[in-house]
Amino acid sequence: MSETPVKQQSSTAYYGQAIASFAVALGATAIGIYSLDVSGWIRAFLAISVLYLTTSAFTLAKVIRDKQEAGQLVSRVDQARLEKILAEHDPFKPVA
């Protein structure tokens, strides 16, 4: 059975860009909420809404990633079973 390492699909630069983009978007939203000409209760509500949206997005991304990784694991197990069957098969063995 061959052990194929899981390949990293994104580079360090892509990872850094994603973090920077998230930080800029969250910071810009926070500045926008802070500079609104509304009462503190409305600002607090908008800030809590943004935090809830952010945590929901992280949860959704994690669920999607976990589902994809589970699919890859099942695929690797199936591949290992197939390799084992092929390795044990003798095409010259007479059929009984």
TrEMBL record:
The chain crosses the membrane at residues 12-34, 40-61. Residues 14-66 form the YiaAB two helix domain. InterPro entries: YiaA-like (IPR038972), YiaAB (IPR008024). It comes from Streptomyces longisporoflavus. Keywords: Membrane, Transmembrane, Transmembrane helix. This is YiaA/YiaB family inner membrane protein. Pfam families: YiaAB (PF05360).
